[in-house]
Fold this protein.
Amino acid sequence: MTTDGIGPSTLIVLNRDGMGDGDADLRAKLLTTYLTLLVENDVLPGAICFYTEGVKLVCEGSPYLELLSALEGKGVHLIVCTTCLKHYDLFDQVAVGIVGGMTDIITAQGKAAKVITL
């Protein structure tokens, strides 16, 4: 797998409960495959930001926790929106990543040479 294009200066945004706009099963399947390939091939963005429904991906019970933990273990910063967690009443259920504010998200965007929204 080529790693051209995704690296430490890349920020990935996850702002829904899967990848893309398809039905729930397809979104889940696509995101699982995407994250698995990142982990297995050491294609590591500098950070992943989670906001709106994307915060659900880092909370207890999420099927993505193992993959996200693996990415975090490889040095990928996982930034989770405080406001969104409070909105969905998930603040106490974060299982991976760091809880940050909009300033943290803006800082990550500013440092990124490329922002990819899934």
